[in-house]
Amino acid sequence: MPVFQNLSNALVLASTYILMAAGLSMVYGVLKILHVAHAAVYTVGAFTGLVMYTWVANFWLALFGAMVVSGVMGVLIYRGVYFYMLDAPRTVPLIASIGMFVMFTDLLQKKFLMGPYQKALPVEGAGMPALNVGVVSITSTQMLILVVTVALMLGVYLILSRTRIGLGWQAAAMDREMAGAVGVNLNRVVALNFFLGSALAGAAGVLVGAYNNSVFATMGDIVSYKAFIIIVLGGMGSLPGVIVASILLAVVENFLVASVGYVLPRDAVAFLVLILMLMFRPHGLFGRE
Amino acid sequence: MSKLIVQNVSKQFGGLRALNDVSFETESEILGLIGPNGAGKTTLFNVISGFLKPTAGKVHYNGQSLHHYHPHRIVELGLARTFQIVKPFGDLTVLENVLSGYGMPLYRRPQAFFRWYRTPVIERAADEILALTDLTAYRNVAAESLPIGVQRRLEIARALATQPDFLLLDEPAAGLTAHEAEALADLIRTLHAQGKSIIVIEHNMAFAMSLCQRILVLAQGELIAQGAPADIQSNEQVINVYLGKR
Amino acid sequence: MSGYVISVAIFVGIWVTLALSLNILTGYAGQVSLGHAAFFGIGAYTSAVLAVRYGQPFWVDFIAAIIITGVVGTILGLPSLRVRHDFLVLATMGINFVVVAIFKYVDFFGGAMGLVNIPAPSFFGATFRGGTPYLILVWGYVVFVWAVSWYISKSWVGLAFNAIRLDEDAAAAVGIGAARFKIYAFGISAALAGGAGSLYAHFIGSVFPDTFVFVESIAILSMVVFGGMGTLRGPIVGAIILKAAPEFLRFVQDYRFTIYGALLVLMMLFQPMGLLGDDSWLWQLLKRWFGKKTVAPSEEVAQ
């Protein structure tokens, strides 16, 4: 019994990782900036979703709203901060990103926003059916996450591969200078990137908040670290790699906690994996250089 | 005398064969290495100087195999190189760039912790090199703010600071004015007169022909000709490679 | 001086040494580390364990903290060799996380409850925890760490550090093996941070895992970058400002992190070289006011 159920739960967990990591990968892919502030975008998304849901009592509207707000926030971060640091040494945008992360997280904890405690987001599946396939049962909320993730990832894939601007991104991810030289409007491509990637993070925030029925200011920390680890695992700029790596990590985490128990916290698993990866396969499991 | 032997060296990058069974020897001469773009000239330098490992073949210097040697160890043996795209230490001044070469004997020793790099003795030696390469005017200027021609001279000066017997110069005349190129040629002849062996990668045919005593021609990873400049210039294969079938 | 001010000065001193030690790794050698708090913690815990479990006196704890943290730092520097620049940051984050997890979940280190009852140092029979004697001890260490940094910057090792920061290939071309010097940088910077950890442990009297989390690494790196990475004056000033300010400004205390974060962003936007970095507005101003006027003719040629 437990194996398949664990797998199913892992898939749900993986979905949230995928949304986070795919978004981060898109941003990192072109600019090569370690966008630590991605965690703040995620949390703002969750918070926006919460506020909107309390306001209009419709999950889909709340999700949409959260994605838009997060997306815009991402674009603002790019245009207002990173834009001026594109040729600076690596530490500059990194510290700026850290600064934004610290700032937003702290602000969100102030009483007039989220306050220091967690809030409930009782979504209960938003009309999604629950599923019982043999020994595996999927709750309606889990179904919700899976469906939304698949839909969003499909959307992103279509945009990247079918639209002109998506192709521009792929070119820019491979070689920024060349892409500029052949007429790709880098500014627009990157801005779109940030919008999409951040929107995905916002969606992830809402979904996780709904799943755990809890939204709080520091919820982005661990997820964003794991997103980085997943990007390393899956190879930078490789969307299929991100998907596979997310699933792998979620499965390992779930099974390790289930079987070995609490020797080390579950999150340490991710970091041990990272360190091992960096030592033995620095280019990721599938990444191209 | 310092002798460099390249023996059946091949280098493969995935599906691309950058070097194919290249062999030659050189000793106390000014050797030119020419060939069309993408021929593998810089790759060959990278293999010799240890930045790349050959897929096959060997490199011997003074009877010693350079197999498995890291680039910083090869410099210690007396083989120095410059880069096709100049790599100065941008934040450092011209003088400090050159000084860095003088540390070569010390970097792997504990003395590196205890000796300071700016001593009168070493500064004097560095100033001599600055004079030789006509860089004295830029002594205390940050390397990154220099024009390309000056940076190319700095590349050579820095390599000279490691007191090499053998110099690999990768397109040292690229981007230089005719006047600067002539000065560079004089410098190379002077270094040769001092007993150094030099291999020069060069695109400018006239420059290479007038400067070098012997020429190697590389095309698509293969050594298609070697000999005196006059012979090379009349070599049919060489002419084809450059003019006809590319 | 009031006891409160002395305590703040002691904390500031300890963080100055943390910033200076990180500066050697990140500012000189260019290895961006977001895990320096791990070394801080290893030093603190080494001291704590030796004092509490083995009853060793302060000086043994202190020297051991420096040596052991240095060794561990050297070992932890090994993965950095295989890793591309961007990933080094992640790797150091991971190391930080794992080290803290070990402190938290391994009983030998006291687990989540930490280790308490670390005795105060004593000299010739007089014990002191805090107060002016400890202040002198801590700032004596500051002078020591500063001297080490200064000495390194003048030596071939310092030149090598700068070389690998600027261009590893060019460095190899002059005989500098990047791997060796990265390890040196990790070892030295870790050892010095370990000493700070020991001073911290004996001052507070207890150590807890959560003091050394990733957030603290961010704080230390921020001090270095804010003040001017790669210089000697930068980390000192950065640590003093960022550590002392919240203590003295109530308003700032509540919004401490918001201001911290905003400060970092603004700094990077307008003065990415740091407050006292070589090309910073403030440093150029200070040089004009207090420095000698020397314009070498060669500089004009280069224009």
Descriptive notes:
The complex is a heterotrimer of chains A (289), B (246) and C (303). Chain A is mainly alpha-helical and 289 residues long. Chain A has one domain (12-224). Chain A has helices at residues 2-31, 38-56, 59-80, 91-109, 140-162, 164-174, 176-181, 186-212, 220-234, 239-259, 266-280; strands at residues 131-133, 136-138. Chain A has a two-stranded antiparallel ribbon. In chain A, α3 (59-80) packs across α8 and α10 (239-259) packs across α11 (266-280). The mean pLDDT of chain B is 91. In chain B, the strands form two sheets. In chain B, strands 6-7-8-3-9-10 form a six-stranded mixed β-sheet, sandwiched between helices. Chain B has a four-stranded antiparallel β-sheet with strand order 2-1-4-5, with helices on one face. Chain B is globular, with a radius of gyration of 18 Å. Chain B has ten helices and ten strands. The longest helix of chain B has 16 residues, at 178-193. Helices cover 37% and strands 25% of the residues of chain B. Chain C is mainly alpha-helical and 303 residues long. Chain C has one domain: ABC transporter involved in vitamin B12 uptake, BtuC, CATH 1.10.3470. Helices cover 72% and strands 1% of the residues of chain C. The radius of gyration of chain C is 20 Å and the shape is globular. The N and C termini of chain C lie far apart (53 Å). The chains are: A mainly alpha (289), B alpha/beta (246), C mainly alpha (303). The interface between A and C is large, with 41 and 39 residues.
- Radius of gyration of chain C, whole Å: 20 Å
How far apart, in Å, are the first and last alpha carbons of chain C? 53 Å
CATH topology of chain C: ABC transporter involved in vitamin B12 uptake, BtuC
| Strand element count of chain B | 10
Name the average pLDDT of chain B. Answer: 91
Q: Work out the helix count of chain B.
A: 10
CATH class of chain C: Mainly Alpha
- Report the biggest beta sheet of chain C as strand number plus sense, adding barrel if it closes: 2 strands, antiparallel
How many extended strands of chain C?
Answer: 2
**Biggest interface, chains and residue tallies:** A-C, 41 and 39 residues
Task: Give the overall average pLDDT of chain C.
Answer: 87
- The CATH architecture of chain C is Orthogonal Bundle
* Domain module count of chain C: 1
